[in-house]
Amino acid sequence: MRRTRTTVGLVVAAMALTVGVTGCGGSEAGHRRGAGPFGWLRPAPPPTGWKVARIPRGSTLAYPPGWKPIKTDRGTATVALLGGGERIDGYLNATPKQGSETLANWSRFRVDHNRDEGSRHVHLVASANDLRFRSGRGSCVIDSYATSKAVYREIACLVAGPNSRAVVVAAAPAALWHDQAATLHRAVSSFVP
Fold it and tell me: What is this structure's pTM?
């Protein structure tokens, strides 16, 4: 009898602990929002002091001081943090939707696009759909790939706003990812398609 009470007491204590732990931090939806590979995505205006680049269709890409606009494809906005010898230590780009990319096929499309551009060893790290942005919803990937100059890690999102669809890319050499991740996350979180 005494052993049964002890066992029941332990079970009740374990259940109470489980309820207490799972109950902390709010609702289940609130818990999920901050978890996973895109838990950092928190739509917000850019920090004070950041500049804003625009593409002709109206999308805005915010970037921090010290980053410089660079020339790439017409109709896009691209900025980079340049290291020694014109090495790219961080890269941000906004491009209007141009091809057959959709929110539903984004993870396959982006990986194939990187391969078509000549990247090697393309690896999809994570993907997600129906992510919230400042003025729309998007599908995103995190991937890695090698070019002739370096191995890169990138976040690439196709975002559908009320009037347009655009792609935002945030990348850095894999060796510098930990140094650049917070800045890249903030730039993607402030993107407006």
Answer: 0.81
